[in-house]
Amino acid sequence: METATYAPFAKPLYVMVKPVGAVCNLACDYCYYLEKSNLYKDNPKHVMSEQLLEKFVEEYIHSQTQPQVLFTWHGGETLMRPISFYKRAMELQQRYAQGRTIDNCIQTNGTLLTDEWCEFFRENNWLVGVSIDGPQEFHDEYRKNRMGQPSFVKVMQGINLLKKHGVEWNGMAVVNDFNADYPLDFYRFFKEIGCHYIQFAPIVERILTHEDGRYLASLSEEKGGTLADFSVGPEQWGDFLCTLFDEWVKEDVGEYFIQLFDSTLANWVGEEPGVCTLAKTCGHAGVMEFNGDVYSCDHFVFPEYRLGNIHQQTLVEMMYGERQHDFGQQKQNALPTQCRTCEFLFACNGECPKNRFGHTAEGEPGLNYLCPGYYRFFKHVAPYMDYMKNELLNQRPPASVMQAIREKRI
């Protein structure tokens, strides 16, 4: 396939950075990234060098086709690098910006936040994403440190520091087999702590045993393995979404922003969703490890999805190349017939490929494990999405759906 035939520069180049690789001060039971350190056993430090940092910053900025450039710092635990590392990153960003607007966001487990960190984030307008799985009982079920001690109290101390210093932050919660049974307790907790932007992601993993120590299955390993016990179930996921949506759509539209609901509405009106799992294709968001290795996606950091290394190939070659393009298109091309004929294909698009290890009733492979839950959710929210779509098309706020519900017009 000729590069030009698929308009490779149609989307901004986006690569998340892992400045400490998989290194983390926590050892969450369901973490899909801790094991990635096994890929780099010959490099025990797992620390990005200043030389690589400068190379990445310069090349990343110069590879952009738009005037806004977003840097996303991801872990492991990003705060295991000192503030001086990120100050240096910002110096380099300014050196190579050439008039572009530079934004930074960082994901953290929140346990290492201090006044100094928070002041740095506030002064430099960084967006901070904090991983927290709801109230203490839910959070501490799986999010513990390496000594098996719970982390909730330290995370909340970090969140309170962010609020004290006026740092813009959002919450990222993993929905698992435990907290999924309590959607309203879960949701109301985020409202109580003043979190107006919430991402929740279902955890689904298969466990395999390998001599090299890797235990989570990749998409290329379609057969075998057992579903991890922390995985959320399909029906459980559907119940969770529907129950939470019912409260949100009656009370909180326009006040609390739940990424999955916003992205569903985007698909309903034919816009690009804000989350890759519901997009028609994927492959837009790559990830670079501490040593310069670039992978197709944060959830596909396996040897077979390594695109190359920034020391040997450019980011443009890797992220806009035919291999990455094919990876992104495979999301659509590999859909089973059941998905292609589904009334909600436009809203779901088969969800994340990593979860497509199920089979249809006809025995066709490639069905998303969470399909029954998503189908129930989309069926349940369709009348409300139709209403909000109509409001948007008529240049009225979708939050008017709440009044319509009160007046029993939906």
Entry summary:
36% of the residues lie in helices and 14% in strands. It is α/β, with parallel strands linked by helices. The relative contact order is 0.11.
Describe this structure in words.
The protein is α/β, with parallel strands linked by helices and 410 residues long. The chain contains 14 helices and 14 strands. The strands form 4 sheets. Strands 2-3-4-5-6-9 form a 6-stranded parallel beta sheet. Strands 1-10-11-12 form a 4-stranded mixed beta sheet. Helix 6 links the parallel strand 5 and strand 6. Helix 1 runs parallel beside helix 2 and helix 7 packs parallel to helix 13. The radius of gyration is 21 Å and the shape is globular.
Structural class: alpha/beta
Q: Please, how many helices?
A: 14
Percent of residues in helices comes to 25-40%
Radius of gyration: 21 Å
Element-by-element helix/strand order = EHEHEHEHHEHEEEHEHEEEHHHHEEHH
